[in-house]
Amino acid sequence: MKKMCSVLVMLVLFSFLLSGCYYFAAQKEIKNAENSVAQLKAAGGDKTAPYEYCSAEAFLAGAKKEFNENDFKPAKELASRSRSAAEAGLAKK
């Protein structure tokens, strides 16, 4: 019984650690995406690369929505796609 409780405690602790990692990773990726989208907007990307700009904005909005709903893994993935779209728009210039 004691061994079973120890294993259960370890599993719970491990799951909390994993969810915390996703939280901070998603938060960092959203900040990076926000910076990339801001750089694209400042460079006139809404006119020179409208597809990339709109995509970056939409992915960022989705990432923030998922983050607010505590879905950190999809939030990180959407933020990464947003950053990639913004960087593609910056490369077009």
What this model shows, in words?
This protein is mainly alpha-helical and 93 residues long. The protein has one domain. It contains four helices and no strands. The chain has helices at 2-42, 45-48, 50-68, 72-92. Helix 3 (50-68) packs antiparallel against helix 4. The model has no long low-confidence stretch (mean pLDDT 89).
N-to-C series of helices and strands:
HHHH
Range of helix content: over 70%
Main beta sheet: strand number and arrangement?
none
Overall geometry comes to rod-shaped
Number of strands: 0
The proportion of strand residues reads under 5%
Mean residue pLDDT? 89
> What gap, in angstroms, lies between the N and C termini?
65 Å
- Structure classification: mainly alpha
- What ranges have pLDDT less than 50 throughout 5 or more consecutive residues? none
What are the main properties of this structure?
single chain, 93 residues, mainly alpha, 4 helices, rod-shaped
Write a brief caption for the model.
This protein has about 90 residues and is mainly α. It is built from four helices and no strands. The model has no long low-confidence stretch (mean pLDDT about 90).
Element layout with pairings:
Blueprint (H helix, E strand, L loop, with lengths): L1 H41 L2 H4 L1 H19 L3 H21 L1
Helix pairs in contact: 1-3, 1-4, 3-4
